[in-house]
Amino acid sequence: MVKVRSQIGQRIEESINFDKRIFFVLLLLLFYAIRFLTNDVLVKSIPGYEQLQEDGSLSIFFIFNALNYLWTPFALLWKFTVIAFIIWIGAFSWGYKVSFKKLWQFVMVAEIVFIFPELIKLLFIMTTSGQLTPDEIKGYAPLSLYSWINPQEVATKFHYPLRTLNLFEILYWMLLILGFHSISNRSLKISTLVVLSSYGFGLLIWLVFYVMSYR
Question: What is the value of pTM for the model shown?
Fold first, then answer.
């Protein structure tokens, strides 16, 4: 039986009909630019920054950042591959066959949603520089559960999970659901079931593992 593509699926497919290689380069450049500006403001907020820079005390910080920039493209590619594979396996376990390549490409496109918290954090740092400590700025997680708590009243092992559970993560789930709906031609209900039972469950397992193994 031939499945008829929904209007939503058609619009999604048309909207992402562009060269994915160029998109990845642009996505990478955006991450680089935002993180460079963020790190620049962050390091300048350290008390005695000029003196530390003169005596070379910040060399390790700059080396670490350089290595982080070099690792970023590989980290993104690995993230896309793992998430696409988890959803692909999830779909297979429910009896649905989808193209891994198309799924991988959509996971990459959906990553654009995480540009926005980076931008919000950059604006936050620029407007609060000198008012907060570097640790407070570094731990800032916009629109997350972490932003609603007093970090000093919650065990450190819960900080990362609380930062991970944010509005942008929910939007990411929604994009993945729409992407699977477009690629597989399955209903939104089935697409939601597949994504939440694969990626959603996998994320939950990871967060539980993180909390249990935290030292």
Answer: 0.86
